[in-house]
TrEMBL record, chain A:
It holds the Pfam family BPD_transp_2. Its main location: membrane. Keywords: Cell inner membrane, Cell membrane, Membrane, Transmembrane, Transmembrane helix, Transport. GO terms for molecular function: transmembrane transporter activity. It comes from Pseudotabrizicola alkalilacus. CDD domains: TM_PBP1_transp_AraH_like. The chain crosses the membrane at residues 7-27, 39-58, 88-109, 116-134, 154-173, 204-226, 232-252, 259-278, 284-303. This is ABC transporter permease. The keyword Cell inner membrane applies. It is a multi-pass membrane protein. The keyword Cell membrane applies. GO terms for cellular component: plasma membrane.
UniProtKB/TrEMBL annotation, chain B:
GO terms for molecular function: ATP binding; ATP hydrolysis activity. This is Sugar ABC transporter ATP-binding protein. Residues 8-247, 254-479 form the ABC transporter domain. The keyword ATP-binding applies. It comes from Pseudotabrizicola alkalilacus. InterPro entries: AAA+_ATPase, ABC_carbohydrate_import_ATPase, ABC_transporter-like_ATP-bd, ABC_transporter-like_CS, P-loop_NTPase. Keywords: ATP-binding, Nucleotide-binding, Repeat, Sugar transport, Transport. It comes from the Bacteria.
Length: 313, 481
């Protein structure tokens, strides 16, 4: 039986996650419990949501450098407006999603580099977040808090949420017509255009969907931390990009994998815990995390090479 | 009127790109049950008229009719609703999607629950109809298919029917990536489609295909239709004459000069080893996709260090698949041409503008690149002229060996003759050419030909032994080796 390209694409992230998990369990057997797992993966849920959001932008060959500030902005809105005046809060978030859709349209129509536009927007989102919440504070909406700290039987919330997210994103992006269209725009925009589709609509929906996932990430994050501050999620920009790549996605060509992206996000979170358990000083952790990333990508490159050798006709 | 109304009619269309008149008052009507053969030089306006018909390009002047009614406004969506389908010269599928998903993209009406099963049935049926025994799994990603298979999928896509049957199918160089057997299957299907009342516009540089398949032949030149006759009214020579191109003179094989100083060697895992001498034109023949391209890439990797470029390059490469491996989309013609020789054109690490412009001007006249200004973007050129730029890029290097991967794909007869001439002169001056081509005529220009079958060199032909018969005999298993 021939192993499909998609299978191989997902094999590396799965293997690296399992390997890291095994390492963590070996170093700290007590992590192998309901509470342990919940603690390990708790913070992975918002990162996974942000990673899916980034993946949607990357599916249309763009890159979002404002992901971190946008999630921070959403967190601030969630901890203030959404808690105090829910209707106003929802309106603000809907407006933010509409802004994202508009960004997608502008980037396409004016043929602008997405990196520049989103980098500029990152200052806008960051500024708005500071205006809303000048000092750390605010209160998470009760329902968000309730969902995030709920303790379902047998399997911890973090795992259930990750699995649900992976399945939902897979159905939406890999199986639905809209998902095919979005990936088609990334693969060959002209052929999509020639088939009579509106590329503007496809890009706008990719950006809007991404914003929806990013909003969910912000709300989840506030649900976990109970309060927000304007810089709460700055590192999500790079984490989300790394998560997509780690999960088998590519920067161009619409080659993405939602399941891989969720696993990539989990792996990145776990890498942090793994290094703490190894008692590596926090000063070195970022470098060590980079090292893990390089190793995983090198393995993937190696596999790709083997595959193209084996699959050449 | 006795004739049925035209499936499609363009009347007095004109398109200008800046200074260039791409279309100059063209009127064309296509009746049901008709296969129009459209021929002409590169840059004659064939691709432009195709873009006008499929709605991708709005002419500055002219009207478009279908079934007797005027269509205005006209665009891609309207064209598709009228049953216009198009197979473009460059491959236009999404490589990251499966064939099924590409079918979904092509047919907008296919949506709703269970579309995957419907798309699978539609594309599989069409593939079976056009290319019986194709052996393609429609669940595969397009990216893993060979070029020929992609082209087959694209053609099948155009003939597929998802509730909106195709009425006019435009095939722009459909056989350029297909071998003879597949091309025959395709042309047979075109005849069936036309007999059932469909309409086809066939664009091809293979004049035999046009003469055998088309019911009416339209010749274009400089944005105008210069001749239009029923197929019986033309023969091969007449058609070439009508296009106004250089008459094809019989290609003659150069004799081996006897020089046996080997400049290029590659031991093969199986079969005969590969060897090329100074001043030799070595052909790689055989059916498409039997290892010729892979061998060229291996030669290149073997002789071009990837870590540190050599001062004097040993080999240079002319890609056939120019969109993917050849051109820099956003660069000017000049930059595209000089990229391979920047170190020759610079002093102390700085590029000499004057030298670069002069180099560009020399090659512009030498191979007649049709443009007003070398600073124009490369995409403003027609396909054949883009390929000429790639030739200029390779030939202007000092590399003694030129590797060519089916470089004449979609290049017109006149340009080919010019390039053949250049290759011959360069070879006499001591350059070595390794030339993969699917066209027999080009193999006859070589001193020596290696015939490939299933990734292995199965025969070596020299001098008079290079003939269509011998190459075909070696290409097919069991006959001769």
């Amino acid at each position: 039986m021939r192993i499909s390209t998609d299978m191989l694409r997902i094999a590396v992230p799965v293997a690296s996650l399992l390997l890291l998990l095994a390492g963590v369990f070996y170093l700290q057997p007590r992590a192998m419990s309901y509470n342990g797992l919940n603690l390990l993966f708790n913070l992975a849920v918002p990162i996974a949501l942000a990673t899916i959001a980034q993946m949607l932008i990357m599916a249309v060959n763009d890159l979002d450098l404002s992901m971190g500030t946008f999630v921070s902005f959403v967190a601030c809105v969630a901890a203030t407006y959404l808690h105090d005046t829910p209707i106003l809060g929802v309106l603000v978030l809907l407006g933010a999603i509409a802004t994202y859709a508009a960004l997608g349209v502008i980037i396409y129509l004016r043929d602008l580099p997405s990196i520049v536009v989103t980098l500029g927007m990152s200052f806008v989102w960051g500024g708005l977040a500071v205006l809303i919440l000048p000092a750390p504070g605010g209160t998470a909406p009760e329902w968000a808090r309730a969902v995030m700290i709920s303790k379902p039987p047998l399997v911890p919330m973090a795992i259930i949420a990750s699995v649900l997210l992976a399945v939902f994103a897979h159905l939406l992006i890999m199986r639905s017509s809209l998902g095919v269209l979005i990936r088609g725009v990334g693969g060959n925009q002209r052929s999509v255009q020639r088939a009579g589709w509106s590329v503007i609509a496809a890009r706008a929906s990719a950006y809007a969907l991404a914003a929806c996932f990013a909003v969910a990430a912000g709300i989840c994050l506030v649900g976990l931390t109970t309060s927000a501050d304007a810089n709460i999620a700055l590192r999500y920009t790079l984490l989300s990009i790394a998560g997509v790549i780690l999960g088998g996605g590519e920067f161009t060509g619409g080659r993405i994998s939602p399941v891989g992206a969720v696993i990539g996000a989990l792996t990145l979170t776990l890498a942090g815990s793994f290094l703490s358990f190894l008692r590596i000083s926090p000063d070195w952790q970022i470098g060590a995390q980079g090292g893990i990333l390089i190793i995983v990508l090198a393995v993937r490159l190696l596999l790709n090479r083997l595959e193209s050798k084996g699959g050449a006709r | 009127m006795l004739l049925p109304p035209a499936v499609f009619e363009v009347s007095d269309a004109a398109v200008r790109f800046g200074e260039v008149r791409a279309l100059d008052g063209v009127s064309l009507a296509i009746l049901p049950g008709e296969c129009i053969g459209l021929v002409g030089h590169n840059g004659a306006g064939k691709s432009t008229i195709v873009s006008v018909i499929n709605g991708g390009l709005t002419p500055q002047q002219g009207e478009i009719f279908s079934d007797g009614t005027r269509l205005a406004p006209y665009g891609i969506g309207v064209a598709r609703n009228r049953g216009v389908r198009c197979v473009f010269q460059e491959l236009s599928l999404c490589p990251n999607l499966s064939i099924i998903e590409n079918t979904r993209i092509m047919h907008r009406t296919l949506g709703g629950f269970g579309w995957r099963a419907r798309a699978r049935a539609i594309i599989a049926a069409s593939l079976d109809a056009v290319f019986p025994g194709h052996g393609i799994d429609v669940g595969d990603q397009v990216g893993v298919l060979s070029i020929a298979q992609r082209q087959m999928v694209e053609i099948a896509m155009a003939f597929s029917d998802a509730g909106q049957p195709p009425r006019l199918v435009i095939l722009d160089e459909p056989t350029s990536s297909l071998d003879a057997g597949l091309a025959t299957q395709l042309l047979a299907h075109v005849r069936r489609f036309v007999a059932a009342g469909g309409a086809v516009i066939l664009i091809s540089h293979m004049l035999n295909e046009i003469l055998e398949t088309a019911s009416r032949i339209v010749v274009m030149k400089d944005g105008k239709i210069v001749a239009e006759r029923a197929a019986g009214g033309f023969d091969h020579a007449g058609l070439v004459k009508a296009m106004g191109s250089v008459a094809t003179h019989q290609a003659t094989a150069r004799r081996s000069t006897g020089a046996s100083q080997s400049v290029l060697d590659l031991p093969m895992a199986k079969g005969q080893p590969f060897r090329a001498c100074k001043g030799e034109v070595v052909g790689l023949a055989g059916l498409g996709g039997h290892g010729q391209t892979r061998m060229l890439l291996a030669l290149f990797d073997h002789h071009a260090p990837q870590w540190w470029p050599r001062r004097d390059p040993a080999v240079t490469f002319v890609a056939g698949d120019r969109r993917e491996n050849g051109i820099f989309d956003r660069w000017s013609i000049l930059k595209n041409m000089t990229i391979a020789t920047l170190s020759d054109l610079s002093r102390r690490g700085l590029l000499q503008d004057g030298a670069e412009t002069a180099r560009g001007a020399t090659w512009k006249t030498r191979i007649e690149i049709r443009t007003a200004n070398m600073e124009n973007p490369i995409l403003s050129l027609s396909g054949g002229n883009q390929q000429k730029v790639l030739f200029a890029r390779a030939l202007s290097t000092r590399a003694p060996v030129v590797l060519m991967d089916d470089p004449m794909r979609g290049v017109d007869v006149g340009t080919k003759q010019e390039v053949y001439g250049i290759i011959r002169t360069e070879a006499e001056a001591g350059r070595t050419f390794v030339w993969y081509s699917t066209e027999m005529e080009e193999m006859q220009l070589c001193d020596r030909v290696y015939v490939f079958r299933e990734g292995v060199i199965v025969a070596e032909l020299t001098g008079d032994a290079i003939s269509e018969h011998n190459i075909l005999a070696a290409s097919f298993e069991g006959t001769a080796a």
